[in-house]
Amino acid sequence: MRKPLIAGNWKMNGSAELVETFGRAFAEVDLPSSLEVLIHPPFPYLDAARRAFANTPLGLGAQTLNPLHSGARTGEVSGQMLREFGVEYVLVGHSERRQLYRENDEQVYDRLIAALSVGIKPILCVGETLEERDAGHTEDVVLRQVGYVMARLEPEQRRQVTIAYEPVWAIGTGRTATPEQAQQVMAAIRRYQAGFDRELAEGLRLLYGGSMNASNADELLAQEDIDGGLIGGASLKVDDFIAICQSAG
Length: 249
Ligand code: PGA
Fold this sequence. Notes:
- β2 (36-40), α2 (46-52) and β3 form a beta-alpha-beta unit.
- The protein contains twelve helices and eight strands.
- It has helices at 16-28, 46-52, 79-84, 95-100, 105-117, 130-134, 138-150, 155-158, 179-194, 198-203, 217-221, 238-248; strands at 5-9, 36-40, 58-62, 89-92, 121-126, 162-165, 206-209, 228-231.
- By secondary structure, it is an alpha/beta fold.
- The mean pLDDT is 96.
- The longest helix is centred in the last third of the chain and has 16 residues, at 179-194.
- α7 packs parallel to α9.
- It has one domain (5-248): Aldolase class I (TIM Barrel), CATH 3.20.20.70.
- Bound molecules: 2-phosphoglycolic acid (PGA).
- The site of 2-phosphoglycolic acid has 13 residues, from β8.
- 2-phosphoglycolic acid is lined by residues 9, 166, 171-172, 209-212, 230-234.
């Protein structure tokens, strides 16, 4: 059985106070033990989050990392540093990084390898733009993004990867993929993985992301190939985020 995962991506949002609010709320909330929950706060809040989340079910994720362990890379943060602050997971290939910071598949791969090399589990984000969907290229685009990385990994490395399917047109727009649209692409990703190894495909955790919220989480998470969610906007509101976690339990 795949363990459901709900990951909150705060992006460049939140505050020290919000970290405390989440720590307090999640210390009291009753979530099924089968569920894994993460918050990916901005870098400056990682240490405070580690302390605030200590007695809660919340795990810690980062939003990106540099492929190098150290060096002259002004403004960057390495996997080794994240590890020191208790980070367990990191997002790689988020569409905002691909689009705004021009990260290509090769750079996404380098970051993913850097994460694995320090024992941080990568969440590989993939997804098509509206133009690509309208042109009928959704599966090609998504499987290219998945394949570029997965084909270069050793079987043991592949097992560490979670994949988040996030249609770019659904991120932060309030426009969610229908459960059927999401399921179709996610089933294609699982089939693709089965080409490497059936057992791996069965165990692969697939998250949906893109305007998931407390009202639509139930029907998205009910889909056969959706094992959890990567939540942006709704992960900044503690009650909404708890409601989504409860939908996944
Ligand atoms: P959203 O963001 O939930 O605000 O659409 C999701 C994401 O970018 O991970």
